[in-house]
Write a structure and sequence with these properties.
Strands 1, 2, 3, 4, 5, 6, 7 and 8 form an eight-stranded mixed beta sheet that branches. The chain is built from twelve helices and eight strands. The chain has about 300 residues and is of the alpha/beta class. About 40% of the residues lie in helices and about 15% in strands.
């Protein structure tokens, strides 16, 4: 994003095309980890962990590699365990304890002082109010001085402004308790889509409708991911490595084609996420970032 022209860096971030990764920290999950949340394949369909884990892991590159590959939005899900004071990343199984990956993000930002990342804490499994306080304290300690405070004037927040204020992190905290934390952003300022549609033609209609109806005054997060339910996975035999890979890759390829149709901007895309963002040398993030060139065409007009 540092390499975007000055014209684009002065456009509100809610009107930029920003690439993101879905379930960003699932690369830290392995089959020996503890369960940390509901996962229908295991809980409802009695599928063994070694088979179900294929659907728990949505990224295979470290957070540093994702950032180096152009990803600027991270989807984070966390859990607390009753037998530990630690907090873990989670998607069915627990991943790593959160401290080291968050520190990696902070170190990367320190070495890239003009860059900016959105951290979206989406789900909090088995969290108490004390767990929330613990997590918030850790976030503030790690990213001290880098956090962009909440503002209702989101239309005034640009990459250039963020750089001038030395803010490098925007924290979305999707829990009502965030209202007690003045510098975190609530869900209603960054709504995200959700769909269980498996056919991409139908999913494309859903995405088109989301774009047309999105508010131009707030952010818009498009999760361009297949989200098959357990019965669909079993019916289509998607527990097979080859079939699962073909299914997710076809969906992702169609997503990249769809992204090229829409410009960035108030009537176009904003944050877009997908699985396995590193495929084809991070083609996904390159595709999304290039859509910001549409702003240059507007300027020429």
């Amino acid at each position: 994003m540092t390499q975007l022209p000055a014209i684009i860096r002065n456009i509100p971030i809610i009107h930029l095309a920003i690439p993101g990764s879905h379930n960003s920290m699932t690369y830290t999950i392995n089959s020996y980890n503890n369960f940390g949340g509901e996962f229908p394949l295991v809980d409802d369909y009695n599928i063994n962990v070694s088979s179900a884990i294929k659907w728990m892991i949505n990224q295979d590159k470290s957070v540093k590699e994702q950032l180096n590959g152009g990803i600027r939005y991270l989807d984070l899900r966390v859990c607390a365990q009753s037998d530990s004071d630690s907090i873990y990343f989670v998607h069915g199984l627990c991943g790593s304890e959160i401290t080291e990956p968050l520190q990696e993000i902070n170190e990367w930002l320190s070495s890239h002082p003009s860059e900016f990342v959105i951290l979206d804490f989406q789900y909090f499994h088995s969290f108490s109010e004390d767990n929330h306080r613990q997590l918030v304290k850790k976030i503030k300690n790690i990213f001290n001085g880098k956090i962009c405070p909440f503002s209702k004037k989101i239309n005034e927040i640009t990459l250039q402004w963020l750089s001038s204020e030395k803010y490098q992190i925007l924290i979305i905290y999707r829990e009502i308790i965030e209202k007690n934390f003045y510098n975190f952003w609530p869900s209603d300022m960054w709504p995200k889509n959700s769909s269980d549609i498996m056919n991409f033609d139908e999913f494309e209609e859903f995405l088109n409708k989301t774009i047309v109806t999105r508010s131009t005054e707030i952010g818009c997060i498009l999760q361009c991911i297949p989200n098959p339910q357990g019965n669909y996975i079993i019916q289509e035999d998607l527990l097979s490595d080859d079939l699962r890979k073909e299914f997710t890759e076809n969906f992702r390829d169609d997503t990249c084609y769809w992204i090229n149709i829409y410009p960035a901007g108030p009537e176009g895309i904003n944050v877009v996420t997908t699985d396995y963002v590193s495929y084809s040398d991070f083609l996904f993030s390159k595709t999304v970032i290039k859509r910001n060139a549409s702003h240059l065409y507007e300027y020429d007009d």
